[in-house]
Amino acid sequence: MDRKNEPILILDFGGQYSQLIARRVRECHVYCELKPYTMTAEEIQAGGYLGIIFTGGPNSTYEENAPKCDPKLFTLGIPVLGICYGAQLMAQMLGGKVVKGDTKEFGKTEMECNTSSLIFHAAKSKSVCWMSHTDRIEKIPYGFKVTALSENCPVVAMEDIKRRFFAVQFHPEVQHTEEGMLFLRNYLYNACGCTAVWQMDSFVDDTVQELKKKIGKKKVLCALSGGVDSSVAAVLVHKAVGQQLTCIFVDHGLLRKDEGDQVESVFRKQFDMNLIRVNAQERFLTRLAGVTEPEQKRKIIGEEFIRVFEEESAKLGKIDYLCQGTIYPDVVESGTGEAAVIKSHHNVGGLPKDIGFAGIIEPLRDLFKDEVRQAGLVLGLPDYLVYRQPFPGPGLAIRIMGEITPERVAVLQQADAIMREEFINNGLDKCVDQYFAVLTDVKSVGVMGDGRTYENTIALRAVTTDDFMTADWARVPYDVLEKISNRIVNEVGHINRVVYDITSKPPATVEWE
Ligand code: XMP
């Protein structure tokens, strides 16, 4: 059975939770695609979708240039679920009326629903939902009936069961909506007739078969970073074509302590892959000598990475395909705003598309990060690699303020290893999303034994976050911080002070450079 049959379409009206809706649908084992709201009814029909979900969005439906879907979409006979802006849009486009509300409704709200409604089947009649709106549906369209209300909102949900159109003013996809997943499952299984065929083990089996067919006898090259995306992509391709795959792992010398050896051991020993490890520490450090400006560091590392990769792949003769660990959030470009360049992330550790291969293989381009992890587990990758915290392409270079020297890299690697060890010992690695040490360029006076010291400062950074766009500093217990501080000052040379970063993002960023 094609794992992608029974697809659901999510039409994106620019809501901040659009990707979250898609992830939730996938959690219900239903394949879905997130597409711009401009998709035509013809395109939708051609896609064979079993259901359509409208996301929220920042606009008001009655504004002149408010985004609207193709009205013919409502004549296709496909069940539609409108969420927040999507609910209001459905109301307005089908003949109802949306107005600006007198009060904003934001946050947790108690709603009361009619449990004979299809969406609220088996739900509690009163439960908490998450609201975030000012506009409200004043008049529901012909054929609809109200199925839920709250104290301040007379139309929290409505449905036209004949046409299978449903609308909810709240966000079923966010955790604070107590029964949100039940509502989504009701829509997917009972309204659209989906049957939960999207499973990770079948994804892996099907993808391996597809890759076999596509690659045939040809050769594939993969740039392995040790991160979860490129690792899972490489293992999938390896499972399909074995020794026709060659992986190049560029060790730029700015990895965490022992990381290069770990990556080598997993892929060479456990998977018996054709792996080329390029020990390019000296080359990178030479290019970085004397460079202190963060963007300059990123640029140098990005360029050098591509150069090393090109040189190594040239030695291999003709290679047909390049395998990349592109994942679904990289593919869907929702939102059209011009964001300011804070840091030039995406050029570092990545390869340009026109690097001279006949084709690109991206086996993970349909998957969200949590699905990539599940696929990794199905493929037998070790837990520590599958759940590895994110690590930036330029590595420790952007965690060393000021000049990068082999000695300073070694100091940071030791301090960082101590922090990671203590986080794991205290179970904090399970609840903190990213944590690492930074070598600052601040020197300060200290006293050790009877003598004065004038040494470096290590900063500890630990954050919790859902998407790394915003982040909060983690409330790490004082005794854990104390232990890390003591160990770093005692075990690592040239450090006499340890500080903890208590800034959220924004205004700070996760990394220091
Ligand atoms: P910032 O510092 O922008 O970091 O708040 C957000 C997330 O992105 C990671 N990061 C990078 N990842 N190349 C990467 O692959 C980069 O140049 C880069 N810079 C930051 C950072 O570790 C955090 O997870």
Description:
With 513 residues, the chain is an alpha/beta fold. It has 3 domains: 8-191, Rossmann fold (3-Layer(aba) Sandwich); 200-386, 3-Layer(aba) Sandwich (Rossmann fold), CATH 3.40.50.620; 406-500, GMP Synthetase, Chain A, domain 3, CATH 3.30.300. It has helices spanning 18-27, 41-46, 85-93, 180-191, 200-215, 228-241, 259-270, 281-288, 294-315, 328-331, 369-378, 383-386, 406-425, 478-491; strands at residues 8-12, 32-36, 51-54, 80-83, 97-113, 126-139, 145-150, 157-160, 165-168, 220-223, 245-251, 274-279, 321-323, 359-361, 434-448, 451-464, 472-473, 495-500. The strands form 3 sheets. A 9-stranded mixed sheet has the order 2-1-3-4-9-8-7-5-6, sandwiched between helices. A 5-stranded parallel sheet has the order 12-11-10-13-14, sandwiched between helices. Strands 15, 16, 17 and 18 form a 4-stranded mixed sheet that branches. β1, α1 and β2 (32-36) form a beta-alpha-beta unit. α6 (228-241) packs across α11 (369-378) and α13 runs antiparallel to α14. The longest helix has 22 residues, at 294-315. The relative contact order is 0.09. Mean pLDDT is 93; it is low at 334-339. Xanthosine-5'-monophosphate (XMP) is lined by residues 298, 343, 345, 348-349, 390, 392-394, 434, 468, 505, 509-511.
